[in-house]
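hiii, so i know i said id send this last week but things got crazy w the move. better late than never?? heres the sequnce for the chain we talked about at the cafe, plus the structure i predicted for it. fair warning i was half asleep when i ran it
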Amino acid sequence: MISPYVLGLISLQIKNIPLSFCSAKELRSHTETLPPGLLWLCKTLMTEYPTKEPPCLFYHNPIKCLQALLSHPHFKSHISFVPRRVWTCAAKICCIYNEWLSGDRAWNMQEVLLLGATLLGVVLSSDKTNISVMSSNHMAHPLLIRLTNINMHIHSKTSLHAYLLLALLPIAKFTQKNTHVHSLLQDQLMHQALNIVLSPLKTAVSVGIMMSDPSGNLHYCFMPLAAWITDTPEESLLAGTSMKASPVTTATAQEFGDAYQQTQLRIM
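okay and structure toks below
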């Protein structure tokens, strides 16, 4: 039990702190004036074949996620808007590629944009994960999003939250008797969910959208997909190929490891 003397000292210290509120009601009123965070959206997906439970897609608006990253005050001094060339010496013999904006692809994209437009590279990352702690061995399929314009060394610091959770992709259990098609139905469901989540990005990359930076300046932004970070099974799922075929070329399992086989790049 705390003595009255200690309680008196604590009360005295609290009164001496220059707070902007004097009661819990006033604190609540200040809290309600804070800007709201990202809102979760939920949509029940319709499937051609029945499932044990209706698959639900939980997701954020990707444009609002990118706006939250772009206008974050912590990234004010760690964000770039202009593609650049980095050379090892003044003779410009050897080029250094250390960021996406220092690459040739970003440079070429910027050249075809309107004068004054800003290029924002989008990176997505997804991986199906087993949740075994206090969850009855359930599975989750998170989809993360980040901006390539934020400096690379910031992304490695998890405390800065340079990655945002964009969506939780549904994992359905189909009741179809033919179990061989369950994986195909799940892949189809995932593509259906991705089409819903990424639909605003498709519009923004084609017509552009106005967004503000941490200083409050407005930019006319185009947001192409710069990369999708995933493992090999997920890569095959996204490309719509089997595990016995390459997700990026036309090579099959019999041609894997053949250094002399010329394969044409698959159009993703």
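btw Helices lie at 4-16, 24-32, 62-70, 104-112, 152-155, 182-197, 199-207, 232-239. thought thatd interest u
miss u guys!!
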